[in-house]
Amino acid sequence: MRTIVHFGMSKAGSTALQKGLVQAREALLERGVLYPKAPIISHSHNLLSAGLVPPGEIPRFVRHSLEKVGAGPDLCDRWLAALGEAMARGAAKTLVLSAENLWGLRDAEAAARLRERLVGIGATRIEAVAYLRRPSDWYLSMAGQVLAASHRIKPAEPVPYRASIEPMAQHLADASATRLRLYDRTRFPGGDIVADFLERTLEIGDLPAPGREANVSLSAEGLDLLRSYRLHAHPDENGQFTPDTRRVMQALERAEAATPGHARPRLRADLADRLDHGAPDLLWLRDAHGLVFDGIEYDRIETGDWRKRFGALDEVCLLDPARREALAQRGFQEMATALEAHRKRRRRRNKAKGQG
Predict the structure, then answer these.
(1) Terminal CA-CA length for the chain
(2) Has residue 296 been placed in a domain?
(3) Could you list the residue range(s) of the whole structural domain that residue 87 is in?
(4) Contact 135, 263 (CB under 8 A)
(5) Per-residue pLDDT for 330 more than 90?
(6) 186 in a domain, yes or no?
(7) d(C-alpha 63, C-alpha 46), whole Å
């Protein structure tokens, strides 16, 4: 059984790839490829991490997902066992697993345990695949994600590629079976990571790539408003997603769509340059794997450690104060509208209960 493990990196199209493979699940099965549904976080296989690390080190999102269904880490082993039985009975000859949180393991023993489990369910060839994002682009995307659960701005520092790749290449994948690709939409067929994965990894070029979801991302001004909310509403709850923060984000997303001048956040030029030329692992990627990011001057890359902290988002991104004010006003309107709709629904429910 050919087994392909997509292991990241985070913020490099993983969710888009996973949701695209879910949409293509039936068509892939007709081609002998299984992209299975996991019992938690059903579009991905991040459950795998629960079976590879001590309980206290299970990623928070996976741990919370297990708690929601009243299960423990052993759910991973039970799911893998059932998956092995299904592969043995079915016609599929290729198994595809995608879990971007494997990127964060950086642990040879955990990678070896995963290989042992996959061989135990029938894997005869194991391949590892990762898409790698440019340091400055990765930092900007990750910093935005952090602000959804914290008012603290992610420090800038070298992006560690090698520590995540080597355990998978040396202890999970078969020899010469690790595929590293640059996350660059201009190089993907139709700009789509799903089409790239289908064509280059599964060698399926005639399967239409599933449609992509359209979404409005937060601008730099939106992220700054979100950070301000977290600072005042949850000053001591960093690293914790909360329902009220999600509602604020949804209101801001609606406000973004209605406020002129929306643009994706852009790093300050000096910070982007520092990130791209302060990541020594880029030299390793070039020398060991032949991967080179366009626009980076490799003879300028610094090899020492560094770390930069920030006290305000405008130290990281360019902000338009006038648009921030307009977005805040529209965001207040959206939150008020959502609150009134919630109150109406609650009154209707209470009325229905009274009549019952």
Answers:
(1) 56
(2) no
(3) 2-134+159-200
(4) no
(5) yes
(6) yes
(7) 10
**Residues 178, 256: one domain?**
no
If asked whether residues 26 and 168 sit together in one domain, one would say yes
Report how far residue 230's alpha carbon sits from residue 244's, in angstroms, rounded to the nearest whole number.
10
pLDDT in tens, 148-173: 999 999 999 999 999 999 999 999 99
Measured N-to-C along each axis, helices 74-89 and 108-120 cross at an angle, to the nearest 10 degrees, of 40
CA distance 269 to 82: 50
* pLDDT-derived band at 346, boundaries 50, 70, 90: confident
Residue-wise pLDDT tens digits, 231-253 = 999 999 888 889 999 999 999 99
CATH no. for residue 164?
A: 3.40.50
Return the bridge partners of 5, or none.
97, 128
DSSP assignment of 122-150 equals T-SEEEEEEEE--HHHHHHHHHHHHTTS-
Chain mean pLDDT for the chain: 94
Element (H, E) at 129: strand 125-132
Phi first, then psi: give them for residue 138, nearest 5 degrees.
Answer: -65, -45
Q: Are residues 55 and 180 in the same domain?
A: yes
Total structural domains in the chain?
2
| Predicted local distance difference test score (pLDDT) of residue 345 | 86
